[in-house]
Amino acid sequence: MKAFTKNNLTYISIAIGFILLALLPYMGLNLYLISFIFILMMNISLTVGWNILGGYAGYVSFGHAAFVGAGGYTTAILLSQFGWSPIFTTPLAGVVSALIALIVGYPSLRLRGPYFSVITLVIALAIAALVLNLPGINTASGIFVKPPSDSVFMSNFILYEMMAVVLFITILIAQIIEKSKFGLGLIAIREDEEVASTQGVNATKVKLTAYVISGGLAGVVGGIFSWYQGVIYVNSMFSVNLSVMIVLMAILGGTYSWKGAFIGALLVTIINEVLVLSIGSNLSQIIFGVLLVVAILYLPNGIIGLIKNSRTVDLKWKKGKGV
Q: Are the CB atoms for 223 and 97 separated by under 8 Å?
């Protein structure tokens, strides 16, 4: 009963958080803040989505930007070539990215550890090269994506609300997976894949399903992000930096729960914004590289793990004191 209530409270908290987030633009936020929160929501969505495979199953992908780029180019091409609005084609972007995840995931998920990480990076670079050489479309010079409105503020408002919905859905899916038998299967794979298989977990099917869900969610984010960009280029949509940042955000916050990925993305995005404004983007990238190494070495369970350990120590101390 306690677990049931706690789970319900989590869903209610997610719903309240989404409503508050969706209402923020009505509270007189300026264009800068709306744009910043849009990027914040995008990073959280990507990190929580990445965590479905990278965190729960422990398969660390350094090529998540491939799905962002595939989704982005799907909506951009459909808009520029056929005039289809991204409002309707963004879900299709998710389907295309999910299909790519299905195709590349089956062979690549046979690899583990650093081999899987490297192959995902190579796949992302290969897909970027493929998009760069698409016949009939000059992607090298960029694709113009017409904004949703003639008003800059209204365009940002529409994109903000779309990203808020995607963030809500992503967190909802992550929460459902965490509490499901499917989620338990992923965690079992992370702990010991051979043992999980002997216990009846269909490792190939579970990993592939998680990869497809993760890729599909990234594709939807990419579809909205391309609209936000206005003009898209292969380098920006398939950015290796973005893939690395997603991994950093998840590891820093903690990969065992979507809440850790959420915290990591929140902190890194805010710190990144402050660093870029104060010392520039190049130096900030170096600092984040160092931060990634420190997080891997000293925070194996991330910030959320650190918080849980502190609570455990505190409870033990109180019991020892008879409080």
A: no
Higher pLDDT, 86 or 129: 129
Cβ atoms 255, 51 nearer than 8 A: yes
Helix/strand/coil for 139: helix
Q: With a threshold of 0.85, does the pTM exceed it? A: yes
Can you tell me the distance from the alpha carbon of 300 to that of 287, in angstroms, rounded to the nearest whole number? 19
**pLDDT 10s digits, 229-240:** 989 999 889 999
Beta strands (DSSP E) in the chain are: 143-144, 231-232
SS3 of the chain: helix, strand, coil, percent, to 5: 80, 0, 15
| AA identity, residue 76 | A
With vertex at residue 105, the alpha carbon angle to CA 212 and CA 259, rounded to the nearest 5 degrees, is 45
137-164 pLDDT tens trace: 777 788 888 888 888 888 899 999 999 9
Within 10 Å of residue 315's Cβ, how many Cβ atoms? 11
Residues 6 or more apart whose Cβ sits within 8 Å of residue 79: 85, 86, 89, 145, 146, 227
Report whether 232 contacts 91 (CB < 8 A).
Answer: no
Residue 75: closest CA among 54, 57, 56, 97: 97
